[in-house]
Amino acid sequence: MLGIGTALNPFSVRPSYRELDGLSIPSSAVACATRRLRRRILDEKPSAEEVSAWRSSGSSSQHALGQVLVMGDPPDSSRPRRRAAPHCRREDARPDEVAYDYLTKAENAICFFPGVNYTYGDHEPIREMLTDSGTLLD
């Protein structure tokens, strides 16, 4: 789960976002809503080392943010149209812009990053692994 108040915040690797360290989640969300800070954060490109803390293996940060599912209220990870990437095509925005705007609009806004086994919005790979004769459940 990605979010402003989660351990996996995709913007925490950007220097301007680090200026918010120590603020409460509501205070961070208010600060992030300002156009000036939004632009500064989105214009910054984190280093590969910083991104490796939260990205999936072999994915660029732009690709990774394009794969996230905006969860909505109530959360629903089963609807592929909720992915950030399709929102980008409709809104002429980059995946990080869509994720930023979604995550900073409400204190409880979260995104789900399907790193493995649910990458295509399908539980079939998980079922295959669980029912495989070589699988040992402990």
Quick summary:
With 138 residues, the chain is mainly alpha-helical. The chain has eight helices and three strands.
Helices and strands in order:
Elements: E1 2-3, H1 15-18, H2 25-32, H3 35-43, H4 48-51, H5 61-67, E2 69-70, H6 84-91, H7 95-103, E3 110-112, H8 124-131
Antiparallel strand pairs: 1-3, 2-3
Helix pairs in contact: 6-7
Q: What is the radius of gyration computed over CA atoms, rounded to a whole number of angstroms? A: 16 Å
- The tally of domains stands at 1
**What pattern of helices and strands is seen along the backbone?**
EHHHHHEHHEH
Low-confidence stretches: 57-63
What share of residues are in beta strands?
5-15%
* Number of strand elements: 3
Silhouette: elongated
- Secondary-structure-based class equals mainly alpha
What proportion of the residues is helical, as a percent range?
40-55%
N/C terminus separation: 25 Å
Instruction: Describe the sheet with the most strands.
Output: 3 strands, antiparallel
> Average pLDDT across residues?
75
Number of helices: 8
Strand order of the largest sheet: 1-3-2
Question: Would you give an account of this structure?
Answer:
With 138 residues, the protein is mainly α. The chain has one domain (2-131). The chain is 41% helix and 5% strand. It has helices at residues 15-18, 25-32, 35-43, 48-51, 61-67, 84-91, 95-103, 124-131; strands spanning 2-3, 69-70, 110-112. A three-stranded antiparallel β-sheet has the order 1-3-2, covered by helices on one side. Helix 6 crosses helix 7. It is elongated, with a radius of gyration of 16 Å. Residues 57-63 have low confidence and may be disordered.
